[in-house]
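Sanity check

After download, print the first record. It should look like this:
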Amino acid sequence: MEYKWTVLVNTTLGGLMGAINMTIVLISLPTIFRGLNIDPTAPGEFIMLLWVMMGYSIVLATLLVTFGRLSDLYGRTRLYTLGFVIFTFGSILLSIIPDGSGNNGAKMLIGFRMVQGVGGGLLMVNSTALITDSFGPNERGRALGINQISFIAGSLIGLIAGGLLASSNWHLVFIVNIPFAVAGSLWSVFKLKAIPKKVKVPMDIAGNVALGGGLVLISLGFTYALVPYGNSSMGWGSPWVLASFVVGVVLLVTFVFLELKVKQPLFDLRLFEIRAFSYGNFANFVSSLGRGAIMFLVIIWLQGIYLPLHGFSYSSTPFWAGIYMLPLMVGFIVLGPIGGILTDKYGARVFATTGMIITAISLYLLTLLPYNFNLWQFEGILLMNGIGSGLFAAPNTTAVMNSLPEESRGAGSGMRTTFNNIGQTISMAIFFSVAISIFSLKLPSSLLNTSVSIGLPLQIAVAISKIPPSGALFAAFLGINPAASFPSAMLNLIPPTALKSLMSLSFFPNAIGPSFMVGLKDSLYIAILMTIAGAVLSALSGGRYVHGEGYTNGKKVTKISSGNPDSGQRGQK
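Expected structure tokens:
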């Protein structure tokens, strides 16, 4: 096999494995918590649930730029291989967590997932850089398009595999990673060319601390904003959340000033003077803001409302939600490589912009659906969303990576992926806050009226109407019937006919459906605005540009020094 294809296949395996790992755990959470003997909907356990869900992403968001810089200095192949080894080690540790270990087991789960996050971060940041190193400018789009498929395909494969494996034994969710991780490690060691780099450049310790600390605090602020505080269903008023944001922003501002003065900075901020790099990254960031939590809310829509209404048990909804999301993957898989091939030939701007416009239209079409939608309309809209996302991803990534000088590709790839991860973390907090805040206003009266309509005593109907909105949503997401958490003493007071209606698959979907759709639609409107902003930024990114060569409207016009980021496409029309 020609070496460049060896690199592509190996890095695609790494991307696929890392993406599967992110979603396979989400779908398997009910089984994992049952195995650990934890009720994630019990008081005080919600924060544990959040850490299991978001700890991996927080590690990725805060370390990728540092990993990229280390790779530029000490060799991308070497650190990419190290990523496989660390990921393997983390998977082995996760697979031996004892059954029934309670909160101690959950803490081990969080810690070992973070170990996996370190390995996954090294894989993610170096895979794009290695492909850019191995393929020429006229082939990178296709190669990066194929590689981008691994991330979305892995995410959806994880949803399906998690449903299948967790039903047998929750440890299999982690064991399944091990053979792929070992194979990837050995393949990297024996097949990828390690280019020795003998450098004596001091690490920018102050820059690392400022950037990492700032991103950690901001990520924690957005995470804990989802935790109820005082009488509020959200934690935006918590002094700890506010302090995290203030200190985090101060550290990020400090990082900018440090990088402008340090001789060997963690990240060369002059790269943002390259138009293709800056506009491409900002487009990637706002598109991540727009799509990050929306698909998560759509999964809750499927698991908590649509599937139970159509006879699927709560325990089976995580698996079937993954099946119903397949059109999204199909659209991405079809358009990902096509978008890359077109980018190689005509440049990224038109296709990235068109992809964002298609995505925005698909999000608008979702706002027109009722909570008990027509399945074929829903699947068609998901397919359209996947097409738009696929048409954006490869051209955007290609434009950003083509604009970078070779010595900055690791750090540049880290910055690109950091924008993506931070965007998704912020998106989760913003859209859940919007959805739950509106949901909280509408849900109590909806639950009360629905409870009375099936014959529940008023006192019990009032008690049901006081269910925490976030608890109801996450119970649905975890495949748990919210009624199952009611005290048995209360259930014993309910007449048998009314109790049967309460415990049926249709009670909660019909009770929460209208309220959920109001919050979802407002979130979708915000996502549409973000996506349109991504389209505008993509349109402003300029014509085709490869570092070392200047292009306007797809035609080479001048030769540019490949070693100086200042010589990039600043102000290109």
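If your output differs, re-run the checksum step. Summary of this record's structure: Residues 550-573 have pLDDT under 50 and may be disordered.
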